[in-house]
Amino acid sequence: MTHDQATESPAGIQAWATAMQAGSGPRYLRLADFIEEAVAHGALRPGERVPAQRSLATLLGVDLTTVTRGFNEARRRGLIEARGPLGTFIAAPRAELLQRVDLSMNIPPPPVGLEMDALLREGTSRVLLRSDADLLMTYHVGGGGRTDCEAGAKWLQPMLGEVAPERVAVCPGAQAALAALILAFTRPGETILTEPLLYPGLPHAAAQLGRRIEPVAADAYGMRPDALEAACREHAARLVYLNPTLQNPTTATMPEARRLEILRVAERCGARIVEDDPYWRFVPDAPPPLARLAPAQVCYLATLSKTLSPGLRTAYLALPDRVAHAQLLAALRAFSLMAAPLTNALATHWIEEGVAEQIFAGVKAEARERQRIASHTLGSTAGAGIHVWYTLPRYWHARDLAAAASNEGLAVAPSTAFQQGPETANAIRISLGATGGREQLQAALRKLSALLANDRSAQTQVIV
């Protein structure tokens, strides 16, 4: 075997020739781009030899300078490395000295086995085939058109049963929906009742809109009914916010008996409940939502950001009646005329065609695997959903741990970010979906585990 034969690339010699014919721009850049794409898709792997420059120039019908420039560009990008007389090889990925890994952002993990880019291309193409592009680029009715609301009702069906599309409002994300609910059903200066630990977006919206947050005592089952009744009477509160299934951040799920007690108290006090329920689908045999138990009392919110993708910016609200629906739309119009028609149409298409369920099945399966990794690495209980609530050992405070983790290239969310009123928890929320793959997640959790085991109180100070 000659040297040139030995250097023939596993990507296929013909693929190199095809690369030079496709695309536009200088040929040396086409060559570098081909190497980059082949590495990204696994056609060229680290440690594999690429063709010799002279042989490649002859094969491609270009001069040696073009190939040399292409290889230099590929080398600049960290894609190849020269090993003297042995030849040129695909380089191992460059390792950052401190690669920051995000364990703080709650997003669904990428589903294994699904090509999201292909689903996006196909879904967008189908939307454009079925819709007039001019209509997609103009103003639409706030709260979604009939087709979008029907898709929303279909998405809500597993949680709520049959929902009339007239009760559904399509919103540009859960945060916008929560702000609209606050505007619609409270007045400036009024109090909104919540649990002591909650999603930080709600108090932020309340503060910007001039409302107050009042935490209500909770136990292992969630908000306490007696404390809720006392708070309703004391503050004349008309709105209660709950996230009763896989609560963010604690992952607690309120049992059905407690849900019924809460509903009875709210009815006696004349309070409306906002049920923020993004994680219900992750829980096997989850209790029925509050909105299913008492649809006339509850505004039910389900966002696609936690089940499919935040990029869709689509959330569905099920309102108790037409009056509440009209109030919500009037409030929503104050700061968001409409949700983006193109992403709305894509979400609708995916729900109608079953693609949304396919994506969520992949997300749920991947979340389950990541929960197992977290359980094995951190010694925690394997739960459901896309985050873990980890109670810290006594020698760590949540803020200090988050700062120490940041110094190690890890971002975690301390309990102080979720706390309303006096501190009742010393924990961190570890989000499992933002890392690209399981190996990166496992490496990050191992680093975090080592940090958690570092009892700084036992360390003695060295004086020099």
Automatic annotation (TrEMBL):
Gene3D superfamilies in alphabetical order: Type I PLP-dependent aspartate aminotransferase-like (Major domain) (3.40.640.10), Winged helix-like DNA-binding domain superfamily/Winged helix DNA-binding domain (1.10.10.10)
Pfam families to which the protein is assigned, alphabetical: Aminotran_1_2 (PF00155), GntR (PF00392)
Transmembrane spans: none
Domain of life per record: Bacteria
Residue ranges of domain HTH gntR-type in the record: 25-93
Keywords, ordered alphabetically: DNA-binding, Pyridoxal phosphate, Transcription, Transcription regulation
Keyword Mitochondrion: no
InterPro entries found in the cross-reference section: Aminotransferase_I/II_large (IPR004839), HTH_trans_reg/aminotransferase (IPR051446), PyrdxlP-dep_Trfase (IPR015424), PyrdxlP-dep_Trfase_major (IPR015421), Tscrpt_reg_HTH_GntR (IPR000524), WH-like_DNA-bd_sf (IPR036388), WH_DNA-bd_sf (IPR036390)
Family: In the C-terminal section; belongs to the class-I pyridoxal-phosphate-dependent aminotransferase family.
Protein name: GntR family transcriptional regulator
Organism: Paraburkholderia unamae
